[in-house]
Write a structure and sequence with these properties.
232 residues, alpha+beta, twelve-stranded mixed β-sheet, 4 helices, globular, PsdUridine_synth_RluA-like_CS, RNA binding, PsdUridine_synth_cat_dom_sf, catalytic activity, acting on RNA, isomerase
């Protein structure tokens, strides 16, 4: 389903029922509060629920997973304490299938491939370094990519994650010479004007924690020239 069921207060709701809510994060939004003090997406969603259902007191909302701040796309939240541990288990056991779109300037060596690296995270730099062979304190990272479309000066890749490591897509694509557009941290030559990067959490498939039926969400990318070209 690629639709927006509500678009209020700069919040795009892609799916909602009694137990879960899925929103389309804009680049620049943070999912949870951090040292910047900026209002996180989780608080925006709480405000939306409080207003929509006229709820008194505090609104319950569980954060299931996160996206990097400059990234856009699907973020899933739990609306009940019953659903949260079940969703956490789904993600921990890799039973939620996440697909991303990435726009890169340099075409990868192959039209499709499985990348295996060992990522070493540097917390001070907030950056992960990709190695071909295992190094101390590294974690194995696996993804599959395929070339979806050739744009005028860029290339659209679809990426399926097999592991969920810190900055995994950004680091691994950079390691094969195809850094994501706007991603200065991982080797792109200039930043995007809005500090975004062209990485979008495009699809999410998972079994509903209560209804036990498959949920398949597709998020439209940001309304921007390059992303719009990807949809044409």
């Amino acid at each position: 389903m690629e639709k927006v069921i509500s678009d209020k207060n700069n919040l795009q709701v892609l799916y909602e029922d009694n137990h879960i809510i899925v929103v389309n994060k804009r680049p620049g939004d943070i999912v949870q509060g951090d040292k910047t003090g900026d209002k996180p997406l989780s608080e925006v969603v709480k405000s939306y629920i409080k207003e929509k259902y006229n709820k008194p007191g505090n609104v319950y909302l569980g954060v299931v997973h996160r996206l990097d701040r400059p990234t856009s796309g699907i973020v899933l939240f739990s609306k009940t304490s019953k659903a949260l541990p079940r969703l956490n288990k789904l993600f921990q056991q890799k039973e939620a299938k996440k697909t991303y779109w990435a726009i890169v300037k340099n075409v990868p060596p192959k039209d499709s491939d499985t990348l295996v690296h060992f990522l070493n995270r540097n917390p001070k730099q907030n950056k992960s370094y990709a190695h071909i062979k295992e190094v101390p304190e590294s974690k194995k990272a696996i993804l599959e990519y395929r070339l979806l479309k050739k744009l005028d000066n860029y290339f659209l890749l679809e990426v399926d994650l097999h592991t969920g490591r810190h900055h995994q897509i950004r680091s691994q694509l950079s390691a094969i010479g195809s850094p994501i557009k706007g991603d200065l941290k991982y080797g792109f030559d200039r930043s995007n004007k809005d500090a975004s990067i062209h990485l979008h959490a495009r699809e999410l498939k998972f079994i509903h924690p209560v209804k036990k039926e498959e949920i398949h969400i597709t998020a439209p990318p940001p309304d921007e020239v390059l992303w719009n070209n990807c949809l044409n």
